[in-house]
């Protein structure tokens, strides 16, 4: 039986990042990473396999990063955990003992309980190269694609598949707009318009009742209002759920969303076992209440907390802010924290500030594009709680600055006096810089302190 100081179960964003962080903090410890997959996909890049990238093998995390950091790799599956003796039972290999164990077992796609979901031609978003290869081959042989779910992944799949193939693509969303769980209405409305301008059918306020077909192959999607949509293939994109089976089997606690219960140091009830990534329970940065968010960016942050804390607690996870970005055509959409609606639901008295400007100065500089920024503040404390961006691709980076402002609980006045570096070929003018001007706009609506 092989003995290791640290064993990590799971090899995607959380597992890899945890291993690298552990190596940086504990240079002399032995580290083993166990995963079931021969190849590891970049999770957020999966939709782009179906258009821009073109193949699963072009969307992989290489194993070289593990070798570089002296992390051993085992392609195997853990069947059970003997917590008392600190031993892992493997399906194919010999037992492995650990001093500290990290569960980074990820998530699985949510499957709606729809009649006909088991028919050929129906897919979900699985992080499996062979599965995605079969899915990709199917897309080349169809004419009508229906995507259930108008969140980020659903919208990205629609845009990429429409770009790559001459398909009739329809997105079905229960809410009034696509992307509505992450953006306020004015942003969602623009996303809806952009999708339709790119030839994608978007049905909102619609609910799927069943999938229909003959000879065990999907042929149509039936809505609850009786409408039937032709479908040669259907993709369910309605969220992810924690893969906590192994944790439950060995008696670890799970939380309200079904994920592995952890504290702010990412420890489970067993102080020698940590959990991070999609399999770990999350709380909101704003309310401390359970959060359903499952993002690779959150997973990697949690993994950095775990990697540092394995042999001595030095970091605490502050809770999930929720930072997203996507692109439709050439228009970027990005969001961090609370929207006006979710801020109100959380009990905040919210005030929004807005600013729009070209992201170059003067606007005729090459690469110039309009970018709109909306910042949301709590009125009484003037603290930022959210932000949304639409327009230029550089918004995908600016939203990370907004997230940093949120995590540091910056006030509108602090952001308005934020010291920025600007350049004509790289940023908006210092006079028209969206971040500070949106804060100033909000201050004008708050009144004096």
Spell out the key features of this protein.
five-stranded parallel sheet; FAD/NAD(P)-binding domain; seven-stranded mixed sheet; 3 domains; 11 helices; Enolase-like, domain 1; 449 residues; alpha/beta
CATH C-level name of the largest domain: Alpha Beta
What is the name of the CATH topology of the largest domain?
A: FAD/NAD(P)-binding domain
Approximately how much helix is present in the residues? Answer: 10-25%
Number of domains: 3
Q: Kindly name the structural category.
A: alpha/beta
Structure write-up:
This protein is α/β, with parallel strands linked by helices. It has three domains: 2-108 and 241-309, FAD/NAD(P)-binding domain (3-Layer(bba) Sandwich); 111-238, FAD/NAD(P)-binding domain, CATH 3.50.50.60; 323-443, 2-Layer Sandwich (Enolase-like, domain 1), CATH 3.30.390.30. Helix content is 25%, strand content 29%. It has eleven helices and 26 strands. It has helices at 13-25, 64-68, 129-139, 152-164, 185-197, 245-249, 296-309, 340-345, 395-407, 412-416, 434-446; strands at 2-9, 31-35, 40-41, 60-61, 72-75, 78-82, 87-90, 96-103, 107-109, 122-124, 144-148, 168-173, 201-204, 208-214, 217-223, 228-230, 233-236, 240-242, 273-275, 282-283, 290-291, 323-328, 331-337, 350-358, 370-378, 383-391. Strands 1, 2, 5, 6, 7, 8 and 19 form a seven-stranded mixed sheet that branches. A five-stranded parallel sheet has the order 10-17-11-12-13, covered by helices on one side. The protein has a five-stranded antiparallel sheet with strand order 22-23-26-25-24, with helices on both faces. A hairpin with a 2-residue loop joins strand 14 and strand 15 (217-223). The longest helix has 14 residues, at 296-309. The chain is globular. The mean pLDDT is 96.
């Amino acid at each position: 039986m092989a003995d290791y100081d640290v064993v990590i179960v799971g090899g995607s964003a959380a597992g890899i990042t945890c291993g690298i962080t552990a190596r940086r903090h504990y240079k002399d410890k032995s580290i083993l990473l166990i995963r079931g997959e021969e190849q590891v996909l970049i999770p957020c890049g999966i939709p782009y396999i179906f258009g821009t990238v073109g193949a699963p093998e072009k969307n992989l995390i290489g194993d070289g990063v593990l070798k570089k950091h002296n992390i051993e790799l085992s392609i195997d599956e853990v069947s059970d955990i003997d917590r008392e003796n600190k031993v892992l039972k493997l399906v194919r290999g010999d037992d492995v003992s650990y001093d500290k164990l990290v569960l980074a077992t990820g998530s699985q796609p949510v499957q709606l309980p729809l009649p006909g979901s088991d028919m050929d031609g129906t897919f979900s978003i699985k992080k499996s190269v062979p599965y995605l290869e079969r899915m990709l081959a199917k897309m080349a042989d169809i004419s009508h694609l229906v995507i259930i779910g108008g969140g980020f992944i659903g919208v990205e799949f629609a845009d990429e598949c429409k770009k790559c193939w001459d398909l009739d693509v329809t997105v079905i969303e229960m809410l009034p707009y696509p992307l509505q769980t992450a953006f306020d209405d004015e942003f969602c409305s623009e996303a809806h318009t952009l999708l339709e301008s790119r030839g994608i059918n978007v049905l909102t306020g619609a609910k799927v009742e069943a999938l229909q077909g003959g000879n065990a192959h999907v042929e149509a999607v039936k809505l609850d209002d009786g409408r039937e949509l032709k479908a040669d293939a259907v993709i369910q994109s309605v969220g992810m759920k924690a893969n906590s089976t192994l944790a439950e089997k060995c008696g670890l606690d799970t939380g309200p969303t079904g994920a592995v219960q952890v504290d702010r140091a990412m420890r489970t009830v067993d102080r020698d076992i940590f959990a991070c990534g999609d399999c770990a329970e999350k709380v909101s940065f704003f309310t401390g209440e359970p959060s359903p968010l499952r993002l690779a960016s959150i997973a990697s942050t949690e993994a950095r907390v775990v990697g540092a804390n394995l042999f001595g607690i030095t970091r605490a996870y502050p809770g999930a802010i929720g930072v997203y970005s996507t692109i439709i055509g050439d228009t970027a959409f990005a969001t961090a924290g609370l929207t006006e609606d979710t801020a109100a639901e959380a009990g905040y008295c919210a005030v929004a500030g807005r600013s729009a400007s070209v992201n170059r100065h003067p606007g005729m500089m090459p690469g110039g594009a309009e970018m709109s920024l909306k910042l949301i503040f709590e009125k009484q404390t003037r603290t930022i709680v959210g932000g949304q961006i639409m327009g230029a691709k550089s918004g995908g980076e600016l939203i990370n600055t907004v997230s940093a402002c949120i995590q540091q609980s910056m006030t509108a006045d602090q952001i308005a006096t934020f010291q920025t570096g600007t350049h004509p070929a790289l940023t908006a003018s210092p006079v028209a810089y969206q971040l500070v001007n949106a804060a100033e706009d909000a201050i004008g609506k708050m009144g004096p302190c």
